[in-house]
Amino acid sequence: MKTNPRIKSFLLSSIVLFILVGLNVSFSPTASASEQGGIEISRSAVNTVEIRETIAAVKAEKKIEYMQIYDQVVQEEEERIASPSSKQSKFVRYALKFQGTPYWYSGSTPEAFDCSGFVAYVIKKVLDKDVRHSATSQMQLGPRVDDPLPGDLVGFGYGNDFGHIGIYVGNGKVIDALNPNRDTEVRDLSWLEANVAPAVFVRIIEPNRNFNPHKITRKIIDGKIGFDFTP
User: Fold this and answer.
1) Beta strand 173-179 pairing with 217-221
2) What is the domain partition of the chain in residue ranges?
3) Is pTM, for the whole model, over 0.85?
4) Of 3.40.630.10, 3.30.200.210, 3.40.50.10150, 3.90.1720.10, which CATH number belongs to 87-202?
5) 3-state secondary structure of 185
6) What's the rounded Cα separation, in Å, for the pair 94 and 122?
7) pLDDT greater than 60 at residue 41
8) 44-98 pLDDT per residue, tens
9) Taking all residues of the chain, what is their mean pLDDT, rounded to a whole number?
10) Per-residue pLDDT tens for 110-150?
11) How far apart, in Å, are the Cα atoms of 215 and each of 81, 202, 210, 229?
12) C-alpha distance across the termini of the chain, in Å
């Protein structure tokens, strides 16, 4: 016996309606979305938005907590490097003793320095390492870094060719033996870049130091803050 098409259609409509009700799908009354001037949002969608806003608020609180810890970690690291007992401080203090030493091409003693002779002398006396009397060679002594610290070497040049080198002493300052008209002295990094060449930094003290404050990442795992100290 064939089912009446009208009855068949009614049964299908009833099944669909039953499924939709079970899924908690709501219908707008009469006006369409375009007539209301916006997009229709069902009750379940509104709840989803509220949940997302709650999650965002929790993340905002975690971000504040993260920033507090971040600032504390960075401050502790800066204080460690700035302490008189750190290798960086000893290296910089020793280099600063030679302010006023005359420039002499190929000079490598406290009587007279050229740029790489000065750097080689300080490295030997403080770090007990013999290095070549060459700016380009000295710029191969450690990894290049973007976050200069006191005690890093500063090379001025292009690519892997460096015509000048000095020692970064912090606060945008460099001590170097520049030329016959300028003795060994502290100069502004910005002035050197404008008048010599672009600066590149290499780290010879704690070259494998795995702390870079610019690359700390935030991890929220089980509601806890974590840090990635990948260099």
Assistant:
1) unpaired
2) 55-84, 87-202
3) no
4) 3.90.1720.10
5) strand
6) 7
7) no
8) 555 677 777 777 777 777 777 777 777 777 788 788 888 999 999 999 999 999 9
9) 78
10) 999 999 999 999 999 999 999 999 999 999 999 999 889 89
11) 18, 17, 10, 7
12) 79
Question: What 3-state DSSP class applies to 39?
Answer: coil
Q: How far apart are CA 219 and CA 225, in angstroms?
A: 6
| 216 closest CA partner among 144, 142, 147, 143 | 147
Cα–Cα distance for residue pair 151/161, rounded to 1 Å: 21
Beta carbons within 8 Å of 38's beta carbon, 6+ residues apart: none
Contact (Cβ atoms closer than 8 angstroms) between residue 188 and residue 173: yes
Number of other residues whose CB lies within 10 A of the CB of residue 87: 14
Phi, psi of 26 (to 5 degrees): -105, 155
**How is the beta sheet containing 173-179 ordered, strand by strand?**
144-145, 199-202, 153-158, 161-170, 173-179, 182-188
The tally of CA atoms less than 13 A away on the side-chain side of residue 108 is 15
Both tokens of 208, joined, read 């494998």
Residue 15 or residue 198, greater confidence: 198
- Arithmetic mean of pLDDT, 147-175: 95
Tell me which of 15 and 73 has the higher pLDDT. Answer: 73
pLDDT level of residue 32 (50, 70, 90 thresholds):
very low
